[in-house]
């Protein structure tokens, strides 16, 4: 079934799937995942699919899943609260140094990033954590300490994470810190990260509990990663409390990084400047209660951003592509959502087999960033065309600013 802005697919025994994917590719494997999810009995109304949709674990990345009476921990995932933060500054392109290398180096020193191989030890921590956290971390951790001990009692593996030392750190994979220029050559700071080790511990713990519950009650599912926690059960209550805490951690994590990013830039650029002229801090892997179509429902956004009417959001491209600051249109059919990025067209393994360091260098020309074999999986060609993605969701958001990175720090 076709509508002006989206297509509708309905599989046997499933809820409708509304897809804002016109002009962008969608894998058959992703469609199968969507079909599996649509057949769960507690899906409310329909599933909304964003144009960056691609295969995920259990649930499809780029999907918005509204539920009544249950939550799917694997749909939220293990990087709970992963999202974006961006802030406009009073700097312009001509205020940046001609050689951006020292600026990138200063940022890399100010924000721990990356992760240690399992065979290496950094005194009980990974290399992407703080050895001596700064005062900004202490201040944010004081806010997070409330409720932490209670959540630890219900999530034992949380005690063994670098919770405090991970606050204000980047991580690895597709997480990044960037200095960008907008269409008027104004300088923006932008970063992408989530809840680090604490989100992984909480997500992994409750995903396993949900699977155990399914086995206990002989509930057969097309994919065990769709295991769910019914409302009213102890595990459901504990998960909602823990996931809310992890989402708060993720938001504060980005705020601390932004503070340290600004301080790092000030060590290189002597000209006084202000930040947060326009600022956005938004999750794209999370769950929260919202009101839609006359009911209070849980909305899980797995690789999707809230786009209520007038709400600002961030849609990043890739290491060599444009990013967008957008304003939501409040499209109820999408559960007030938009995409969280361009979306991958191939796996990390496939990208590393297909492309070379020379390809990476060419694709990131003009960007001060890593250009080595360990970041080939983040090459721009491994992602969908961001312009096509934006066109497919023109009914969901308006573009406010177009950003292009000049410095990119990867984990």
What letter string, H or E per element, gives the SSE order?
Answer: EEHEEEHEHHHHEEHEHEEEEEEEHHHE
Distance between termini?
42 Å
Shape: globular
What is the overall pLDDT average? 93
What is the third-level CATH name, the topology?
A: tRNA-splicing ligase RtcB
Protein name: 3'-phosphate/5'-hydroxy nucleic acid ligase
Keywords: GTP-binding, Ligase, Manganese, Metal-binding, Nucleotide-binding, RNA repair
Pfam family, one: RtcB
Cofactor: Mn(2+)
Question: How would you sum up this structure in a few lines?
Answer:
Helices cover 30% and strands 24% of the residues. It is an alpha+beta fold and 411 residues long. Strands 10-6-8-7-17-15-14 form a seven-stranded antiparallel beta sheet. Strands 1-2-3-4-12-11 form a six-stranded mixed beta sheet, with helices on both faces. Strands 5-9 form a two-stranded antiparallel ribbon.
Question: What does this protein look like?
Answer:
The protein has 411 residues and is of the alpha+beta class. It has a 7-stranded antiparallel sheet. It has a 6-stranded mixed sheet with strand order 1-2-3-4-12-11, with helices on both faces. Helix 3 crosses helix 8. The chain is 30% helix and 24% strand. About 1% of the residues have low confidence.
